[in-house]
Every structure is written in structure tokens, then in C-alpha cells.
Write a structure and sequence with these properties.
The protein has seven helices and 29 strands. By secondary structure, it is α+β, with helices and mostly antiparallel strands. It has a domain of 265 residues.
């Protein structure tokens, strides 16, 4: 009895004199965001949570689920780097502060300027070497499970210069095992010590990154609508432009499929962890056709009327249950939910399948995946006029034993994503589509079976009205007016096309837009002048 009394007393003392008794888990579906800069990134941090800018204007249809507990931290504060720092590393660290610490929720998301070793924190900078995430112990109360960061190069990995690519650190697959340096970045070396065993994953961008409502919208469209894994949602979400290469890192055992990189849903449970570091990134298919230069905007361009996509024939006989704006098939996929769901406002179709992954089994050839997708489009009744050539990306995973044993690195393919974009014919010229709609997407397991697929392709009822097309020079001048420090930027590339929204959006008009991609003239000044993507209407309307 005496020993039992002592044990209970010890437990009581622990709970009274420490913030909490570890180990513990964060509240399920709790998410906090923070901005490192008060430019557009303060809006990004809010849009990630609510789909709205700080002023309250709705800017993104997809965002963190409404049922989650959400907090946008550091609004009105300055010098916030201490809230990213861990007291086990530096005495001033307050990352477990209940109000402003980043190490408390299930998911933390940051938006702001960065480089490979530090990032902005509202007037000062946070250094990676002072961070440690998810460590719940006697002196710390960190319980974070997912760390997501949208800023330039903080997760840089691989050589600075890649063959055929202008962006720095755009080929993590070419990492040669060198120590971290400007010429060869090593994400294992920089981020490995930051990951406590309980943290499930940390994700960011290896390259320059643009972070605004378009990126947060795509991340959550992937997760909420398309059924993508947690890591896949982030990586594909930030990969909106060819120069952006996102990356996730985690600890785990030898079996890569048992790591959090295969999380299908967010969880507040700790990472089972292990003696290996695993990273996930994507690389393009070698067979992808080159991106064509945009054609000039015609003198006159239509604005089209849209109606929801009619239900394709193969789905007519399926049984569905209605809930809000969705139809859910009675047929289920074990562990994943409905096999098919359809959004009634747009007619968008989403399908789910079983995961099939055997690390030791080699993947198919790219041509085989392309043929499979061609057959699936026909079988599912998804064929349309104006489909572009398919483009594919591979989700790649690399495993390294902890302790920098790079000679024992091993790579494998997790899955592939093939996308067919919509095109319109205007006076014999093919005009592309931009946005999260106007596309057919297949995420295939390595054996070619379907893991996720979607068709967001509203029907064009007819021309609603015709306007003059906005000339390039006029649109470019309009875009420049939205950029401060114009002399610090150069136009890297641009495109124009019709903008179709994500599948959970009611859209009745189809309009064209310009997208201008501005990059800093000095590539070493990305902290001061990060990339900017400016959208301008392509219509001359009064």
C-alpha cells in the first residue's frame, strides 16, 4: 500500500507542477496558423483556415474543415521567433506556449518568406537550429503532429542547379549525399534533428514558392474532395507551377508504407517512428510534352455560360444517398468511404479505390500508365472534346538510415498522378484552362489500379456574351501596378486561359484570365522579394 501511495503521489505532483504529464496528444483536428510577414502572407494564413482574407472577403472555396478547431496566431505581434524555438535547445524558447506556441496543435501551417536556414517571424527571423517539434517531456509540452510551411527553400534538398531547370534546388532526386551547403542542400541534415520521434511529418518547399489562396485552395481541394493522402495533398497542392518542388520528411521504420507519409487522414496520435528518415517529393514524367508558349489573346473572346456536368452513363444505375450538395454512392471502399461521390452544384465526380503498394515490386513504365488512363477515361464515360495531352508526375520516397548513412539510401515510387486539362478552340487556336476545374485526374497505385480519380468539367451551355480581349501590354501594365518594388522583379513567364473552379463551387460563367509569374531579378534576394503570381482579367469589360 505504501508503494501504491507513493506512486499516486508522484503522479499527482507531476500533474500539478508541470504543464502536463507526458506523453500526451494534442486535441484531434486542432489547427493553428501563423504568418511571418504582414504582406499577402497574413491573408494566406487566414485563407488556410477559413477561405477568407483578413478583411473578411471570401477568396478560396476550399479550406480547413469547418468542424476543426482553428486559430490564427501572432496577429498584431512582432518578433515572434521565440514561439518557434524549443527550450531544450535555447532557454528563451516558447514553442509550447498555449496561446502563441507552434508546438501545441495537431497541425501547424506557416506562410512567409524563407531561405534554406531561416525564415521571417514578424520583424526578426527564426533559425532552424533552434527548433525541435513534437517533443513532449518533463521540460516541454510540445505535442505537434504535422508541421506545414509555405515559404521559399526552407526544405531545400539536392543540387542548387539542375539540368534543364532554371529554379534552384528543383531536383531533390539528384542529392549526392554531401553535407549541407549552398551548392548541395541536405534536408536530412537540417531537418532531421528538428523532428522528435512523435512528430508525424514536416513539409515545405525545396524551391522558391508562391503562397496565397490558390495554394491553400488546392491543398484542401486535394484533401477534402479528391481523397489524397495528407502528404500528397500538400505536395501536389504547392506544385502549381513547374518551378515549385515541395517535399515532406518524417521518421519511421524500414517499411516505408508504415510511415506517416501514407497517412490517409490527419490524426493526433504520435508517430510510431523508427531508425530511418524518409522524404517524399514529386518528379515529372520523362514523357511529358513541353509546355507550349501561350498564343496572343484574340481581339474578341467569349464569356460562356456553364451548367453542371450531366451524369455519365456508367453512373446512371448506381445508388446514391444525398447529403447537402453531395451524392454519395451506397457502394463503399473499405477504410475509405463511398466509392463515388458527386457534387450536385457542378456535376464533378470523384472516385476512390483501394491502396495497393509493394515496395519491392518495380512500378510500370510511364507508357503503361498513360494507356491505362486512356482506357479508364473511355470506360468511365469521361471522354470529351478538347482534352489536352496527359501530363504525369511520380510521387517518390527516399529512405535513409539515421546517422547520415547515405550510401544506404533507397528510393521507391509511392504512386503516380496523371492529369488531362481542358482546352477550348477559338478561331482554330487551342486555349488552355487554369484553376482547379477543367481537368480529369487519375492517381494510380504502382500496379496501375485506381487510388483516386476525378472529373471537374462543367458543360458549356453557350456563349453568354462576347468582349474585347485585353491586349498583353495592357494586362502586363495592370499586373505591375499590383507589385511594390517593381524594379526588383522580372517577368519569368505568363499564360492566359479560361478559369474553371474546383468541383465544390457553383460556377455559372466561364471567363478568361492572365497569370503573370514574377521572379526576383537577384535570385539571392528571395527573402526580400519572393515570387509573385498576379491574376488579371483577359476581358475588356466596362
Amino acid at each position: 500500500m505504501k508503494n501504491l501511495f507513493s506512486f499516486c503521489l508522484l503522479g499527482l505532483v507531476c500533474c500539478l507542477f508541470m504543464l502536463s504529464c507526458c506523453p500526451k496528444n494534442p486535441p484531434l483536428n486542432s489547427v493553428k496558423t501563423a504568418h511571418g510577414n504582414t504582406d499577402w502572407h497574413i491573408d494566406t494564413a487566414e485563407e488556410f483556415l477559413t477561405g477568407k482574407e483578413m478583411g473578411g472577403a471570401t477568396s478560396a472555396a476550399n479550406h480547413c474543415p469547418d468542424t476543426w478547431t482553428k486559430t490564427h496566431m501572432h496577429v498584431g505581434l512582432t518578433g515572434t521567433n521565440i514561439y518557434y524555438y524549443d527550450r531544450d535547445v535555447t532557454p528563451s524558447g516558447l514553442d509550447d506556449n498555449y496561446t502563441n506556441g507552434i508546438d501545441k496543435p495537431m497541425l501547424f501551417f506557416y506562410a512567409g518568406h524563407g531561405n534554406p536556414t531561416l525564415f521571417s517571424t514578424l520583424g526578426n527571423y527564426a533559425s532552424l537550429e533552434n527548433m525541435r517539434l513534437g517533443n513532449c517531456s518533463g521540460s516541454n509540452d510540445g505535442t505537434l503532429r504535422y508541421y506545414w510551411q509555405c515559404s521559399c527553400e526552407v526544405f531545400a534538398h539536392g543540387p542548387k542547379n539542375c539540368t534543364g531547370v532554371s529554379a534552384h534546388y528543383a531536383c531533390p532526386q539528384d542529392f549526392d549525399g554531401s553535407a549541407d551547403s549552398d551548392a548541395m542542400r541536405n534536408v536530412y541534415e537540417r531537418w532531421g534533428p528538428i523532428l522528435s520521434p512523435d512528430l508525424r511529418m514536416a513539409c515545405g518547399s525545396s524551391t522558391l514558392a508562391y503562397c496565397h489562396e490558390t495554394e491553400t485552395n488546392k491543398i484542401w481541394d486535394n484533401y477534402n474532395n479528391k481523397g489524397f493522402d495528407v502528404a500528397d495533398s500538400f505536395i501536389d497542392g504547392l506544385h502549381r507551377y513547374s518551378w515549385n518542388t515541395p517535399l515532406c520528411i518524417t521518421t519511421g521504420g524500414f517499411q516505408v508504407a508504415s510511415t506517416p507519409l501514407f497517412d490517409t487522414k490527419f490524426t493526433n496520435l504520435p508517430n510510431p517512428s523508427g531508425e530511418f528518415l524518409h522524404i517524399q517529393y514529386l518528379s515529372n514524367f520523362d514523357s511529358n510534352a513541353p509546355v507550349l508558349k501561350p498564343i496572343p489573346v484574340p481581339e474578341f473572346i467569349p464569356i460562356y455560360e456553364l451548367i453542371p456536368l450531366p451524369l455519365p452513363d456508367p453512373y446512371q444505375k448506381m445508388k446514391f444517398q444525398e447529403k447537402d450538395q453531395w451524392l454519395y454512392s451506397v457502394q463503399q471502399v473499405e477504410g475509405r468511404g463511398p466509392a463515388v461521390k458527386i457534387n450536385r452544384t457542378s456535376g464533378a465526380i470523384y472516385t476512390a479505390g483501394k491502396r495497393s503498394f509493394v515496395e519491392e515490386k518495380p512500378p510500370l513504365k510511364e507508357t503503361a500508365y498513360l494507356e491505362i488512363v486512356k482506357g479508364l477515361i473511355e470506360k468511365q464515360g469521361w471522354s470529351e472534346k478538347g482534352m489536352s495531352r496527359p501530363r504525369g508526375v511520380k510521387m517518390m520516397i527516399e529512405r535513409v538510415p539515421q546517422g547520415h548513412k547515405y550510401s544506404e539510401r533507397k528510393k521507391c515510387q509511392k504512386n503516380i498522378i496523371i492529369t488531362v486539362r481542358r482546352q477550348l478552340d477559338i478561331k482554330g487556336k487551342k486555349v488552355p484552362f487554369v484553376g482547379e476545374g477543367g481537368q480529369i485526374s487519375f492517381q494510380l497505385n504502382n500496379d496501375g489500379t485506381v487510388y483516386n480519380s476525378s472529373k471537374v468539367w462543367r458543360k458549356i451551355k453557350g456563349i453568354k456574351r462576347t468582349t474585347r480581349g485585353k491586349p498583353f501590354n495592357l494586362a502586363y501594365k495592370e499586373a505591375l501596378q499590383k507589385i511594390e518594388n517593381k524594379e526588383a522583379y522580372k517577368l519569368a513567364d505568363w499564360q492566359w486561359g479560361y478559369e474553371e473552379m474546383a468541383g465544390n463551387v457553383k460556377q455559372t460563367e466561364l471567363k478568361a484570365v492572365y497569370l503573370f509569374n514574377f521572379m526576383p531579378r537577384d535570385p539571392e534576394k528571395t527573402m526580400e522579394y519572393p515570387p509573385r503570381i498576379i491574376k488579371v482579367s483577359a476581358h475588356m469589360e466596362k
